[in-house]
Recover the amino acids of this structure.
């Protein structure tokens, strides 16, 4: 059986890893490749890099980072954040990302998901969905889109997404647990793997996300502060009876 | 040892090349059929569909170069779609090089793609998968090979049924998972590949 995954997410801004609460109040946490390599050594199942200032700085910095990550990491990694269209997504995958996460650009033009799946296979195409109270929100949490997140998730998969990264803005950075109703509803509505994101504080939270159908769970602040927490989390999950990679 | 990647135009081969360099290989990526025919080890790797990958190989005569290698008994390794290219018709469209018999079919499981770490179960001893019984490796695919001759299968995994994870017969081998993204177990596979291709 395929194992449940634990995925550290690195929000990258100005070449550094940062983390906020509810998408604001960003704090600096370290150098991306250094942290990524550390997480890989400590048993991370894969990594997500989110380029949160991509639209302000252009794509150059993150492409250089992906090239280094691709050469140095021995676990898969997804890159997303500010992907504005097909060319962007393609250049990230060509630079060495195993998967690309497309958020707003896919919501605005879902045919992007189809084009990417046709070229790279749907296993390389992640649709990232940010939700507040069940509604799709884009532009780093600033623009509510008036569409139900589960409804959009279903279409994104039909269009070609091979995986969904579902982030609850309400839960993000709170360490009080994932948005379980949202995770449950999306997981039940689609047949692709769902990655729960936002709110991880302890192993029990990841277990709860798996229990409602998530195949993987994102962690951020808890490991940025103390990377050694990562193997502890996995052992705790194993002790709870979850099929995780130790 | 010199290792060439048959470039069919489906993007980044850097990660596999880096992983093989770490295992001690001298790697290059090429569209030159002579290089693909003669190198001590040729690898077909990348992402995308069997159909476009097969067309990409044909465009530069790399399919013929690979067939020539196989006839001459020189080692070939297919990774992920590269492994599917060693087989016949794919349900995704197109057909591989039919070096092995059997189709490529869509994975039938509760969740597809088959995405993440899964455990290898060895079905017969083979140098390619030596030391890998019970090890976890990373899969990311929606289609999988179904060999006509079960004797070519050397490792399987379980995802809604049996997934063929690795095949080997003579000097031709394939892995459905991604050794370059499978941490220590993946490095072991690539070391095995180099040892196997030296002796093949």
């Amino acid at each position: 059986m395929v194992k449940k995954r634990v995925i550290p997410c690195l929000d990258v801004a100005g070449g550094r890893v940062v983390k906020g609460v509810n998408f604001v109040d960003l704090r600096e946490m370290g150098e991306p490749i250094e942290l990524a390599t550390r997480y890989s050594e400590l048993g991370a199942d894969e990594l997500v890099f989110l380029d949160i200032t991509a639209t302000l700085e252009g794509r150059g910095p993150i492409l250089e980072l992906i090239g280094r990550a691709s050469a140095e990491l021995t676990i898969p990694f997804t890159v997303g954040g500010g992907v504005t269209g097909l060319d962007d997504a393609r250049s990230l995958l060509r630079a060495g990302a195993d998967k690309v996460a497309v958020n707003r650009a896919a919501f605005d033009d879902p045919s992007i998901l189809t084009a990417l799946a046709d070229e790279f296979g749907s296993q390389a195409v992640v649709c990232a969905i940010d939700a507040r109270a069940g509604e799709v929100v884009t532009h780093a949490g600033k623009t509510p889109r008036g569409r139900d997140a589960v409804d959009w998730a279903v279409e994104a998969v039909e269009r070609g997404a091979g995986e969904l990264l579902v982030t609850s803005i309400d839960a993000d950075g709170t360490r009080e647990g994932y948005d379980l109703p949202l995770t449950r509803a999306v997981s039940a509505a689609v047949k692709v793997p769902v990655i729960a994101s936002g709110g991880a504080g302890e192993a029990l939270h990841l277990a709860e996300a798996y229990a409602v159908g998530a195949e993987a769970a994102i962690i951020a602040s808890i490991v940025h502060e103390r990377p050694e927490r990562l193997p502890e989390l996995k052992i705790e999950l194993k002790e709870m009876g979850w099929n995780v990679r130790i | 040892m010199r290792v060439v990647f048959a470039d069919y135009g489906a993007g980044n081969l850097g990660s596999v090349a880096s992983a093989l360099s770490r295992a001690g290989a001298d790697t290059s990526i090429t569209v030159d059929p002579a290089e693909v025919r003669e190198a001590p080890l040729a690898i077909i790797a990348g992402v995308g569909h069997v159909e476009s990958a097969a067309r990409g190989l044909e465009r530069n005569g790399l399919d013929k170069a690979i067939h020539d290698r196989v006839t001459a008994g020189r080692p070939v390794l297919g990774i992920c779609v590269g492994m599917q290219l060693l087989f016949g018709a794919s349900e995704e469209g197109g057909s591989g090089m039919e070096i092995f018999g059997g189709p490529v079919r869509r994975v039938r499981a509760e969740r597809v793609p088959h995405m993440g770490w899964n455990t290898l179960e060895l079905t017969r001893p083979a140098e390619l998968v030596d030391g890998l019984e019970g090890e976890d490796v990373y899969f990311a695919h929606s289609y999988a090979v179904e060999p006509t001759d079960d004797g070519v299968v050397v490792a399987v995994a379980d995802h809604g049924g049996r997934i063929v994870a690795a095949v080997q017969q003579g000097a031709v081998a394939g892995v459905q998972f991604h050794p370059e993204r499978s941490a220590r177990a993946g490095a072991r596979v690539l070391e095995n590949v180099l040892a196997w291709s030296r002796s093949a």
Observations:
- Chain A has one domain: 5-239.
- Chain A touches chain B at residues 1-5, 40, 45-46, 67, 70-76, 93-96, 98-99, 118-124, 162-163, 191-193, 215-216, 245 (CB under 8 Å).
- The CA atoms of residues 193 and 234 of chain A lie 19 Å apart.
- Residues 60-72 of chain A form the longest helix (13 residues).
